[in-house]
Every structure is written in C-alpha cells, then in structure tokens.
Specification:
The structure holds two protein chains of two kinds. By secondary structure, chain A is mainly α. Chain A is built from three helices and no strands. Chain B folds into two domains: 79 residues, NADH-ubiquinone/plastoquinone oxidoreductase chain 6, subunit NuoJ (Four Helix Bundle (Hemerythrin (Met), subunit A), Up-down Bundle), CATH 1.20.120; 40 residues. In chain B, helix 1 runs antiparallel to helix 2 and helix 2 packs antiparallel against helix 3. The chains are: A mainly alpha, B mainly alpha.
Chain lengths: 100, 169
C-alpha cells in the first residue's frame, strides 16, 4: 500500500506550483489556470483522506468543490472577456484601477 | 507495482504542472494543465474513487478546460512578452517562498502521517455496492441542503457569466 504522506506531498507540491504561478505569471488566463490547479491539489487531499479514514464524505466534498470550480470558471472567464473588450490586454499589471 | 504506477502518474502531473509555468503562450499552459488533470484522474482510479475520476475527466478536462481553450482562441491571446515589468522582483521572492511552503507542508505531513498507509478495506462502508452508488446515497440523504445550495450557486454563475459577457448591460 502507498503511504498517505505520498499523496499529501503530491498535493502540497501541486498547490505550491499553483501559488507560485499565481505570483509570477502576468497573463490573466494563466493565473486563472493556476487557481484551478490549486483547487485540484485540494481535491487530491480530500480523496486521499477519504480513503485513509474509509469514509466516503470526502468524495462528496470533492463533488462540491468541482461545482464551485465550474461556476468560478464560467464567471471568471466572463470577467476576462469583458476586461479584454475594454482594455485590449490580458496583462494584470494593466488592470490596476482599483489598486490605490 | 502500485507504487510504481503512482510515482509515474505523479511525475507526469508535477512535470506538466511545472510546464504551465515554463510556457509563455497560454494555449500551451492549458494543454499541460489538461495533462495534469488526466494524471490526477489516474491517481483517483488507483484510489478506487471511480466517480471522482470520471467527474475529473468530464468536468475539468471536458468542460472547464474546453472553456479556457475557447476563450484563449476567441481573444487571440499573444504570448507573454519578455520585457521587464514592475513586478519582476516577485520572481525572486516567489521561488524561495514557494519552496518554503513545500518544505513546511512536507515536514508537517511526514511528522503527522509517516508510515501510515491507506486502508485496504473498501471505502463504501454502508453496505452499498460501488463508489458511485454510495456517493449518490450520501448526496441525497446527509448532504441534501449543500446539494440544493450548489444548484443556486450554479444558477448565479450562469446569470453572472451572461451579464459579464454581454455587450450592453
């Protein structure tokens, strides 16, 4: 059997890659993809713990996380399309109207 | 054998996740992200979470990533320029901080769960046969309220997406 720590470590690595990408990437769509990667890392932890405790509840929560991710993707990409239509760019540094 | 499959799948997942950061054009990042999702689906199948694995393929790679690729194609996104921007210092702060995050999480994981393995017994403890049936049973008994709230969330998502993407409000 595979130790649970392997699954959790994989989840931690994927989550950190997502955090890092959110920090360094300047393209709005890529940042959004990194956020999806973080959600997936959390899903992996949920499934691993569900298996570890022999409970199915963790997998039900993964279902909810997926529903939230789908809603988030639809609204977020709508925002990106609206922003691109107004500013003709996807660089996050250009969209700093509410920064100060 | 089991460990070898897991290691191969996780290597593919980590490599393609890193490829998201390396690639400059968003379409290549999107394709690597699809590979990451598929390798995670393989890991879910290995953990006998068949329903979650199928949902991963259908919802993530089948719906969300198609939406991403569609938007990238629609907006005709160019690759990121290599010009120095005002947040270039973020890279030198971000790499150590991310490594610190991995180390802190990894140390905690190994201190708390070292040597403990996943249980061999079947996940479905309620006497039902199959993973999907147990999830469905739980979704309509114990988690009915969250399930209904999710439908409202999706409705709000639909309305929000339509309003955001409309030309004239």
């Amino acid at each position: 059997m595979i130790p649970i720590s392997y699954y959790l470590l994989l989840s931690a690595i994927l989550f950190s890659i997502g955090v890092f990408g959110t920090m360094i990437k300047r393209n709005m769509v890529t940042i959004f993809m990194c956020i999806e990667l973080m959600l997936n890392a959390v899903n992996l932890s949920f499934v691993a713990f569900a298996r570890y405790h022999s409970l199915i509840d963790g997998q039900v929560f993964v279902f909810f996380v997926m529903a939230v991710a789908a809603a988030e993707a639809a609204v977020g990409l709508g925002i990106i399309v609206a922003l691109f239509r107004n500013r003709q760019t996807l660089n996050v540094d250009e969209a700093d109207l509410m920064k100060w | 054998m089991e460990l070898a499959i897991f290691l191969i799948l996780s290597m593919i997942g980590i490599a393609s996740a890193l490829n998201i950061l390396i690639q400059r054009h968003p379409i290549y990042s999107a394709l690597s992200l699809i590979l990451t999702f598929l390798s995670l689906a393989g890991i879910y199948i290995q953990m006998q979470a068949e329903f979650i694995a199928v949902m991963q393929v259908v919802i993530y790679t089948g719906a969300i990533m198609v939406l991403f690729v569609f938007v990238i194609m629609l907006l005709n996104v160019k690759a990121e320029e290599r010009v120095p921007n005002k947040l270039i210092g973020m890279r030198y702060v971000g790499i150590p901080l991310s490594l610190l995050l991995v180390t802190a999480l990894g140390l905690n994981i190994f201190q708390s769960f070292s040597g403990q393995t996943l249980r061999v017994s079947d996940v479905s403890t309620s006497g039902l046969t199959g993973n999907t049936q147990s999830i469905g049973k739980l979704l309509y008994t114990q988690y009915t309220l969250p399930f209904e709230v999710t439908s409202i969330l999706l409705l709000v998502g639909i309305v929000g997406a339509i309003i955001m993407a409309k030309k004239e409000l």
